Amino acid sequence: MSETFAVSYRRLAAAQKGHARGAPGYSVYVNRRAGRVLATLAHGWGLTPNQVTLVSAAHTLVGLVVLAVAPAQAWTGVVVAVLLALGYAWDSADGQLARLRGGGSLAGEWLDHFVDAVKIASLHLVVLVALWLHTPYRESAWLVVPLLFSVVAVVSFFGMLLNDLLKGKKGVASTHARGGGTFARSMLLVPTDYGLLCLVFLLWGWTTGFLWVYTLLLVANGAFLALATVKWFREIRALDRVAA
């Protein structure tokens, strides 16, 4: 007999690792807990981690399609925010489900990161298309904002992965190793949280308000990237010195 939801949930909670040192607040205190519930449900339904990754991708894809084709109204923003947030929660669930099943695979990790890369590369470009098609800002300088956000998001994701990859070659723990986070650090990093970005689409029906908040998030993410770039480079240069 398969175990109950409560038993699976307790087992997953017990197996849960500490949150990553660089993990922002929404990801740690909201998304991970939502993902734990979804992972427990997925376990009861007999889903594999890779199937959960595809469920996450499907939610995000549908959210982006709605954003691109629907009018810029309040209901659109709610639907998009819910779908993107669910996609993010399912993204947390795949790794948790893998732990509940006894461990993941390299193929699963590749698929998870590949889907993340597609999501990160696409989201801000879809915002650009939606602003062009459905708002009065099609000939406005505001259109530069999603272009810049796309650059910042892609470079941040690539820089993080590259930093961890090069550290791994030297046997050094990942920048995002588990167990070193603090509440204050997580709250400080909330403006860089993908989960917060999902919720900002609740303002989509009030396009001007959305653009101002969206731009503030761009500034925050750009500042984080600038600081992280210096930190990452120093860490890699320190490894070169040790090797020499």
From TrEMBL:
GO terms for cellular component: membrane. Signal peptide: none annotated. The chain crosses the membrane at residues 61-89, 110-134, 140-162, 183-206, 212-233. The keyword Lyase does not apply. GO terms for molecular function: phosphotransferase activity, for other substituted phosphate groups. InterPro entries: CDP-OH_P_trans, CDP-OH_PTrfase_TM_dom, CDP_ALCOHOL_P_TRANSF_CS. Keywords: Membrane, Transferase, Transmembrane, Transmembrane helix. One of its GO terms (biological process) is phospholipid biosynthetic process. PROSITE patterns: CDP_ALCOHOL_P_TRANSF. The keyword Hydrolase does not apply. Belongs to the CDP-alcohol phosphatidyltransferase class-I family. This is CDP-alcohol phosphatidyltransferase family protein.
